[in-house]
Amino acid sequence: EKGGYKHFMLKEIHEQPRSIADTIRGRVLPDGSRIVYKEIGISYEELALTKKIYLVACGTSYHACLIGKYMIERIARIPVEVDIASEFRYREVPFERDSLFIAITQSGETADTLAALRYAKKSGVKTLTICNVVGSTASREADGVFYTHSGPEIGVASTKAFTSQIVALYIFTFALSKAKRANPADINEIFLSKLFHLPTMAEKALKLEDKIHQLAKEVYKKPNFLYLGRGLNYPVALEGALKLKEISYIHAEGYAAGEMKHGPIALVEEGFPVVFIVSDDLYLEKTLSNMEEIKARDGFIITISSSKEEKLKKLSDRFIYVEGINSYLNTVLFSIPLQLLAYHVAILRGCDVDQPRNLAKSVTVE
Ligand code: M6R
């Protein structure tokens, strides 16, 4: 049942090239020229009218929402609000007209997410769910469903479901952007066609496992970790930290790299591990200066990056190069070594990675 792997989590991490391909299949044509809208249950015309989007979820799915915000705002040019489900439902949100509410949930059974979904529906807002489990409560109650089709996820720590949520959001963003005519068609197509490289690139990212395993041996006894990123990599940092704390019980925090000097830098002393997630984009320069600040305090810098910039390598104590695609899809590729790092650290610490203490696969109480 674990397909030759020691744990479901490891199996699910390795399944990602396939699960990502399954999320893409049938939604976009291989030449990137057409997006299939019908199954979403929300018409092209309705999408075209959308003026505001609310993305709501818990845990890892919430991190996918944050990534979605960066994608939708930049590409489809629609304002997006993101919230944690348990907060959203008590906020008494004054919904704006022509809003779309999207609940992201692997299981489709998370109590807080369902409550937020019901609240939005009751308020007369159109609802969509990005969901993995076919026939789940969320999929039955929302007006529309975008299934991630990543296959059953057994490990309590979400891995393949997360990367499929990002892929679903990427496709949805382009559907939206086409409906809104936010970008010239050829730009849409160039970006969409990149998506078809993702399964192969995920396969390449998985090949980093030995390197990550060696790294895990160096750091598994550290009591604290900081994960930093900017832009789309900020939620990737949050997810990297969540993964590590969930299964290894090491205290880990994710932060926007620019926020570091507003507090967390106080923690940094000799050997303190800081994981930087860096794309080859407009944030690179700014992130380099954050790295210098850590270096000056003798922190231990681990860099996961798609850039080969010399300065970046020089500042890093350990450098993991991940071949990238674009800043949007790199969030998927960077998540893979971060999942593997959490997994190997947890194993070295003798933890039960598939059944971490105090956690349940789906949280059905509020
Ligand atoms: O099934 P859902 O996506 O609604 O679950 C949300 C969270 O409970 C879930 O992501 C949780 O944070 C996982 N343990 C993360 O690994």
TrEMBL record:
It catalyses: D-fructose 6-phosphate + L-glutamine = D-glucosamine 6-phosphate + L-glutamate. It is an enzyme of class 2 (transferase). Keywords: Aminotransferase, Coiled coil, Cytoplasm, Glutamine amidotransferase, Repeat, Transferase. It is found in: Cytoplasm. The keyword Hydrolase does not apply. Residues 43-182, 215-356 form the SIS domain. GO terms for cellular component: cytosol. Its EC number is 2.6.1.16. One of its GO terms (biological process) is fructose 6-phosphate metabolic process. It comes from the Bacteria. One of its GO terms (molecular function) is carbohydrate derivative binding. The active site is at 361 (for fru-6p isomerization activity). Catalyzes the first step in hexosamine metabolism, converting fructose-6P into glucosamine-6P using glutamine as a nitrogen source. Homodimer. This is Glutamine--fructose-6-phosphate aminotransferase [isomerizing]. The lineage of its organism: Bacteria, Pseudomonadati, Nitrospirota, Thermodesulfovibrionia, Thermodesulfovibrionales.
